[in-house]
Amino acid sequence: MKTVSERCHVYASDNINADINELASPYAGGVYLLMDSGSQRYCQSVLGQINGLSPDHILVVGDGDDNKNPQTAVQIWEFLSTHGATRKSLLINLGGGMICDLGGFCASTFKRGIDFINIPTTVLAQVDASLGGKTGMNLGSLKNEVGVFSMAKAVLLNGEFLKTLDKENLLSGFAEMIKHALIHNADALEALLDFDFNNPDYGVLSQLIVDSVKIKEFFVEADPTEKGIRKALNFGHTYGHAYETFALRHNAPVLHGYAVAWGMIKELQLSAELSTLDKKIADQVARRILELYGQPNASDADAAELQELMTHDKKNDGRGINFTLIPSVGEVEVDHVVKF
């Protein structure tokens, strides 16, 4: 294993089976595996055999963000309880952001906390959801309404999982990578926006992911519990979560990264209007995002509903809707309150 982020316990793994067996060895007899039906179908074979993991210690839940809910959390807690898990057990979360978020939350609250390892299988999970200590679940249509901060024992990145993804899921995670460049590294932005998704080079993508993880590490290390500068990572997410919840309300769910991409367009516009971002740069990046992700799922006619949804954002403090804006590419301005 090669260390990618010491603070977030992220490692690049060339031999995922050997590495997970090494990490799981201290928990002999108390190892549990959580995955969704998609990761069972496409990714479990990549993971290989885990020594000491019995078949009855494997739980498969439904895939999709609509399963990131209290009912599935109870299912996971009951599974661990009825199958003999103790405070010295280990939960391995194999899957995308939903599994890493929900599995981490359930591990962190079961018996007041057991160790967990995330093996993210999507770009989105590798660069965002699996690291940084945020865990949680949705409450109704509200995203991540319940959760705790809890670091994984380890996060293992492996490029083989990326080959199981279709273009839409590659793009979904890629939106977070664009965000990382916009808030911290202007030099990385051009390479990201030029990446060819019609003929993806997975070696290049894996390196771009490593670079993106290091940006997230910078913010997590500076502000582990999101009291200040870590709020930079919310760029695109205030509008983005509203787009995502809007989609769920209207029974037309969208991938998280697409919602964030559309949210970044809105928040690039706000950065040009309310901060000092050059409007030409905002428009240029917005056009490229539209080329990659298409038109948003909500129109100007839905503005009032989007604004109502944004009032539920956890960053708000009662004064208005809280945004992260970028005065220029690579710089951030957190806690910018907007009253519509």
Spatial separation of the terminal alpha carbons: 49 Å
What is the CA-atom radius of gyration, in angstroms?
19 Å
Largest sheet: 7 strands, mixed
Mean pLDDT: 92
Low-confidence stretches: none
Strand-helix topology:
Elements: E1 2-5, E2 10-12, H1 16-24, E3 31-36, H2 37-42, H3 44-47, E4 58-61, H4 70-82, E5 90-95, H5 97-109, E6 115-120, H6 123-129, E7 137-139, E8 142-146, E9 154-157, H7 167-184, H8 186-193, H9 202-222, H10 237-249, H11 256-274, H12 279-293, H13 303-310, E10 321-325, E11 333-338
Parallel strand pairs: 2-9, 3-4, 3-5, 5-6, 6-9
Antiparallel strand pairs: 1-2, 7-8, 10-11
Helix pairs in contact: 4-5, 5-6, 6-7, 6-9, 7-8, 7-9, 7-11, 10-11, 10-13, 11-12
Q: How would you describe this structure to a colleague?
A:
45% of the residues lie in helices and 15% in strands. By secondary structure, the chain is an alpha/beta fold. It is built from 13 helices and eleven strands. It has helices at residues 16-24, 37-42, 44-47, 70-82, 97-109, 123-129, 167-184, 186-193, 202-222, 237-249, 256-274, 279-293, 303-310; strands at residues 2-5, 10-12, 31-36, 58-61, 90-95, 115-120, 137-139, 142-146, 154-157, 321-325, 333-338. The protein starts with a strand and ends with a strand.
Concise summary:
The chain is of the alpha/beta class and 340 residues long. Helices cover 45% and strands 15% of the residues.
Describe this protein with a few key phrases:
340 residues; globular; single chain; alpha/beta; 11 strands; seven-stranded mixed beta sheet
